[in-house]
TrEMBL record:
The lineage of its organism: Bacteria, Bacillati, Actinomycetota, Actinomycetes, Pseudonocardiales. Its cofactor is FAD. Residues 2-370 form the FAD dependent oxidoreductase domain. One of its GO terms (cellular component) is cytoplasm. Pfam families: DAO (PF01266). Residues 177-197 are annotated as: Disordered. Keywords: Flavoprotein, Oxidoreductase. This is D-amino-acid dehydrogenase. The keyword Oxidoreductase applies. GO terms for molecular function: oxidoreductase activity. Belongs to the DadA oxidoreductase family. The keyword Oxidoreductase applies.
Length: 390
């Protein structure tokens, strides 16, 4: 099995394939702006305003995190995942009423989500001291957070322990045998597909990785924001485009931030803390950015304005760095998970957008099951079928 890409989606897929005993090679080019390297993840699907089509997958992904973290810890790999609780914050009682109703409905079907409670502003500030004085909260005890860099490295290291190999090179994919006259080996995603079977003794697909030629029974394209470019060389149209995210890191020396909960305003921005006086604020969602790997004045201002409006107590913190990540965004915001019609042995695991650190570890498990012929709950992946784009 060849996995193209080693961001959170590719690393999770490679790990789960290797864990099941498959021979795995991961191929990824060194590029600036890999979303996982910039991201800090909030694992709390129960408090998020997910589209109803994707919420069942998100809830299953949230429930899977403790199991995955424990399995990786048994291999000596630490993900940084920790349950610290989360707070939906607002000055509006109506907004908090709405958030509380949603959370309590979801918690009823999700034991791992923990307990929900309403906090007044003083109680909320006792948990996250920099918070603005007027913000009340809906608190959920089972919410967690994870460092994107650390969980990615843990998955890669654990996959290597299981025998997977990781190559740092640009990948080029092609069928292992040419299509017969009058047929096409590749076409638009979801198209009828008139290609002849591509199975040969040496595998269906061939991947060039740097100067190395690799043959594979299956290829999983999980190249994040670069997935469309890889697919284009194969003659496929994969509707994934880069969406720039700028995420800012603060340092509060001498402050114990290890137990601070995730903070979720009623916007796309957020705050979360890690041990050692480290607080993260994000993030912009810049559609149409291309691969412009810069911290911009407008992007930095947007992040700071939102962060300081919610937590003015961060004003005296040290602005340590701002990271850039290119999220792989699809037109309908849902990921692409599944087989490419008309191309046996070719699979997609990409397009996670801003939800990669929540969804991708579990999606990698489902993809490994699919590729190896296992049973996968059809209802979870149906909304994410690549065929929906025709």
């Amino acid at each position: 099995m060849i996995v193209i890409g080693s961001g959170i989606g590719g690393a999770a897929t490679a790990y789960h394939l290797a864990e099941r005993g498959a021979e795995v090679v991961s191929v990824d080019a060194p590029r600036p702006g890999v979303a996982t390297e910039a991201g800090a993840g909030i694992v709390s699907p129960w408090t998020s305003r997910w589209d109803n089509r994707i919420y069942p997958l998100a809830a299953a992904a949230g429930a899977y995190y403790p199991e995955l973290a424990a399995a990786l810890a048994e291999q000596g790999q630490h993900t940084s995942y920790e349950v610290v609780g989360g707070m939906v914050v607002s000055e509006s009682a109506n907004e908090l009423d709405e958030a509380e109703a949603l959370v309590r409905t979801r918690v009823a079907d999700a034991p791992g989500a923990g307990a929900a409670s309403r906090l007044d502003p003083a109680q909320a500030r006792s948990l996250f001291p920099p918070l603005a004085p007027g913000l009340g909260a809906v608190h959920l005890s089972g919410a967690g957070r994870v460092d994107g860099r650390r969980i990615r490295r843990a998955l890669i290291a654990a996959a290597k322990q299981r025998g997977a190999r990781f190559a740092r090179a640009t990948a080029s994919v092609r069928p292992n045998v040419p299509a017969t006259k009058g047929t096409s080996a590749a076409g638009p995603i979801g198209g009828p597909g008139s290609g002849a079977p591509l199975t040969t003794a040496n595998g269906r697909w061939r991947v060039t990785a740097g100067g190395e030629e690799l043959a594979a029974d299956a290829v999983v394209l999980s190249a994040g924001a670069w997935s469309a470019a890889v697919a284009e060389r194969l003659g496929l149209v994969v509707p994934v485009a880069p969406q720039r995210g700028q995420i800012t890191h603060f340092e509060l020396p001498g402050t114990d931030t290890a137990a601070w909960p995730v903070v979720l305003p009623r916007s796309s921005h957020y705050l979360l803390a890690f041990p050692g006086g480290h607080v993260v604020a994000g993030a912009t969602r810049e559609t149409g950015s291309g691969f412009d790997h810069r911290v911009t004045a407008a992007g930095q201002r947007e992040v700071l304005d939102h962060a300081l409006a919610v937590a003015p107590g961060l004003a005296d913190s040290t602005l340590a760095e701002t990271r850039i990540g290119f999220r792989p965004a699809t037109p309908d915001t849902l990921p692409l998970l599944g087989a490419v019609d008309g191309n046996p042995g070719l699979w997609l695991a990409t397009g996670f957008g801003p939800a990669g650190l929540t969804l991708a570890p579990y999606a990698g498990k489902l993809m490994a099951d699919l590729v190896l012929g296992g049973d996968v709950p059809a209802d979870l992946l149906a909304p994410c079928s690549p065929a929906r784009f025709g």
